[in-house]
Each structure stands twice: as C-alpha cells, then as structure tokens.
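Hey, quick one: can you model this chain's 3D structure?
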Amino acid sequence: MATRISRRTVLAAGAGAAAGLSLPGVDAYAADRRTTRVGYTLNAQVLDGGEQVTSITLRTARLGPVDPAGLTTGTFGVRARATSPIPLGDDVVSGTYDVDRAVTAVRLDHRGDIVLDLSHGEGQTGGGTLGYLAGRGRNVLLDLDYTLTQHAPIPLRNHRSVVIGEFVREPGLSDPEVDAFSSHVSGSGMKYRLYSPTRAHSSRRSGHPLIVWLHGGGEGASLPDHYYDNETTLRANRGALGFATPEAQRVFGGAYVVAPQSTSYWMEDGPRFAPLIHEIVREVTRAHRVDRDRIYVAGCSNGGYMSLKMTTVYPTLFAASVPICGVVTSFPAGGAPLIPDPELARITTPTWLVTSRDDTTVDPRANTVHAHELIPGSLMTLYDDVTWNGHRFPGHWSWIYVARNDPRVDGTRIWQWMAAQRRH
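Sure thing. Here's the predicted structure for all 424 residues.
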C-alpha cells in the first residue's frame, strides 16, 4: 500500500501543459505507479443557458482495475480558469472566472476510466465555455485552463494504489451533441456546421428534410480580431441542437440541420448575406439526399430577422419559417425598417413567430406582433416570460421554447407543424 500523502499533489494542466510530481515515499512504491502520465478530457453539455463543463474524464483504465469504493469526492480537487482568447484592449468580457469547481461525484465509466462530476446548472458561474465581449457584441470560446489536484492515492482492486505523476489535458472539449455536427466552409467562404441524420432516424422517403438554423447576433464572427470559430453557433444555446435531438429527429423522420455562421451579424446587411446562406443550402442539397420540398428555416434574434428576410428574398425556397424574437423595425430606433411592411405583407411561406412579452432587447409588439399582423396566415406564440425547469431566463431568450418543442397552437406543437409543411 502507498504511504499516506503528507502534502497535496498539484498537477497543473492547461491546454496541453503538464506539471510534474515529487512526493516523499512515492519511489518506494514505484511498482504501483503504472504510469507517470494520465490524459484527461473536459466533458461539456449545452444547457438552455449555454455550454458548461460538466465533468472530467481521467484516462485511468490502463492503470489497472480501479476500486470505485475507495474513491471519494475528496480524492481530487479541480481549479478552473477561463480567459478571453482575444486581447481585450478597452473592451470587457463577461463569463470569465478563476474558481474551484466542486466535485459532486466520482465514478467509473464503461471503459474503467475515472469520471469527476462537477457542480453545474443554469445560473451557476465557473463552468461556462463561452464569454461575451460587450463592446464587440460577440460570444467567444474561452481559453480554459484546468488544474487537477490529487489528494489521495487511487485504490486498485488488487489492494494496491496508484499516485499519478502527470496530468495532461487532451485538446478540445467533448460534447457529443456538438461533435455530431461536421464542420464546413462554403464556396464563398462562409463557415457552417452540419448535422446528418443517423440510420436509426433515416427516412424511407425520397429524401430528408433540411432545417436551416440562423444564429443570434452574438454568435457571428469578429473578423477584425481574426476570430471566426464555427463553434459558438452550437455552444451558445440549443437552437440548432434541439433539432438534432432524437425527439426532433423522430418528428421529422430524420433531418439534416445546417447552422451557417455569419462573418459579422445578419442585420448588418441581410440582402448581402441572403445569397450566401442560399449557397450553403444549395451545397447541402446537392451533396446529400435532401427533399427540396421540405426545407425549413428558423432563427433567433438577428437570426429571427434573417429567417424572415430569407422568405422575402426567396419566396418559394422554404416550406416553413420560424422567426424567434426577430427584428423587422429599425434597429436601433430612428432608421428605416429592416423589413418594410409591404415585404412582410407579401410573405407566402407558412410562418410561426415566437417571442416573450418581457423581452427588453427586441420590442415584441413593434416586431413580432407587428409582423404577425401583416404576414398572411401566420401563427404566433406570445409567452409572458421565459421560464424552463423552474429557472427564469432573460425575456429575449424565447428560442429556449422552440428548442424544447414547447410552442403550440390548437394542440399542435411547433416541430410537428413544421414537419407537416411542404413547399407548394
């Protein structure tokens, strides 16, 4: 058995960095130290309020059969630091932190690796993967630096124990929902992510539907900073991910989901971005078995505007449109409307608008309600606030409801309504 550790083992590991280990008495138990190097992965999950690191997987299976009964939440300590990947200058970034992450459980996965579950949840700080640059109006994927501290030896089933000599972080984040989207660049240079339906949800029809998700303003690029990540479109909220869930895939009979990323923000120049989005739609439909009569567009905030704009520029392309808390009036106030009333009145694409009365970012009455009154045959869901699973979010975040298939009219939910629409 290893002797009692008299001082803590601090094993600092940033993005590929590692720290060494020297403990009194460890050399006497060299046979127990099956490896001096253990990799670890940060596991993340996109909650309704954005992505958080929820657990850490230590690649310990090769150490030998670990005895889970000897592991406790005090076996390891975790320190997390998150900083901006972009020099700030006069800007400020929210969402950064330098905190101890609470380990809530220690378990073995099916491979025999140790998993440290971390405290996380809506409204909690210290686990997010994104920061918001206020001056630029952009979300960015933070630089994450995790330091692991081993407080006690790892017990094995053969009554021996192991002290790890070195922890090394494996690159990137492990988020199965995000990782299911492949990464692409269009012929014109616009980046996008694409989810392809699995065989389990494969449609027996001639082709699969295609859902185009258009992100909010914060998920665009910041090209003056050379920042164009093709990441925040999926990690900032569940807008695109919701349509890739098993539940949504069953409703749509297996759907492709494409999420283009603007080189800035859609409202900057919708007429210029519209053909670039159309190009991505054409690339996906040519490369995959897509039913051209079942192409849908949905988006939030900036993307809510852009989903409406796409149906004015391409009136026969989409089978349905779901604009969420979108903008049609001037923004900021005082200028020309982004989508004039005559354009709204000429929309023929079946449209279901969603917003919340307490949206303080985009006036719901001047935008969503106004658009609903003008778009022939449109549907609208107007919530009082944005509350999900007991947590109240900012009123602008009504996309949460669409990502959870919550809006309904006369008993029909929004995903089922979309899936029933065909291009005429």
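One thing worth noting: The chain is about 20% helix and 30% strand.
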